Amino acid sequence: MLCLEGFITDVTDQQESQRGQRAVMQVASTVTSRVGEDYFQQLIATLTTLLEADAGFIALLDQPVLPLQGDGFHPNNLLPATTGHTVSLVVDGQIRKNYTFLLRDTPVEGVVLEQESVVHHGQRFTLPGAKLSAQAWIGRRLDNAKGEAIGVMMVFYKAPLNTNAFATSVLRILSTGAAAELERRRDHRHIHQLAYTDSTTGLPNRARFMEMLSTMGQLSGQQRSPIIVTVVGSASF
Predict the structure, then answer these.
(1) CA 129 to CA 227: how far, in whole Å?
(2) CA-CA distance, 193 to 107, in Å (whole number)?
(3) pTM here?
(4) Residue 215 Cα distances to 79, 153, 222, angstroms
(5) In a designed cystine with 98, which of 86, 136, 184, 220 is the match (CB 3.0 to 4.6 A)?
(6) What are 179-190's pLDDT values in tens digits?
(7) 48-67: b (≥16 Cβ within 10 Å) or e
(8) pLDDT tens-digit series, residues 209-227
(9) What are the extents of the domains in the chain?
């Protein structure tokens, strides 16, 4: 009897592994040629379908969270990051508008702190920017090359979960690629900010002004309407 149970377990594990590999290959085939927003949207759309989830998102933290030290907890369990912004949000198979939300006391906070979080039947959580109320979720933290948390990838279910091994395995595998693309996106935004923002005031700089002026000039010519530029000098700034 023990030998038979062991054989059945081995076969089941092998089938689950093969199922996970097929799922990853299917996701990879749909996102390989995509970048940026399109990559994240297609990734979550395909992922929620494969995992039979009711919703899912990838969110970017407002600032990186350093790797945990010592006992594995941040002081008072407070994260340096306070908000997250979805870069892709899918609810009931539909791509939704992205939203910014607070991290405190949300499932996202738990994922950032624990690296991976699985809740089979928890307190109901309403997704940001959606009316969907979830009772179960699975999440994986997305880290950059330095090991800092920069985002999360999560799927949500309206009803309690019975099993999660397959979904957890798929999220673990796909999180590496998602983290790399998210880091590339963050780096691109940072470079853009350095190029077009004054480091002292945080306001748009001369380069940004000239670019906007050029765009408005072209639009003015197309619409045959004048533009007015007002220059204000500030002494001893």
Answers:
(1) 37
(2) 30
(3) 0.67
(4) 40, 37, 11
(5) 86
(6) 888 888 775 554
(7) bebbebbbbbbbbbeebbee
(8) 777 777 777 777 777 778 7
(9) 13-186
For 56, the 3-state DSSP assignment is strand
The pair of three-digit structure tokens given for residue 27, joined into one six-digit string:
């996701």
Token representation of residue 26: 């299917």
58, 62, 67, 72: CA torsion to nearest 10: -90
| Backbone φ and ψ of 164, nearest 5° | -150, -5
Amino acid symbol at 34: R
Q: Report the candidate in 54, 71, 23 with the shortest Cα–Cα distance to residue 170.
A: 23
Give start and end residues of each alpha helix (H) in the chain: 2-31, 36-50, 107-114, 165-196, 206-223
Q: In angstroms, what is the C-alpha Rg of the chain?
A: 23
- CA 226, distance to chain mean position in Å, is 42
Who contacts 119 (Cβ-Cβ below 8 Å, separation ≥6)? Answer: 107, 110, 136, 137, 138, 161
* Residue closest to 56 by CA, chosen among 116, 113, 134: 134
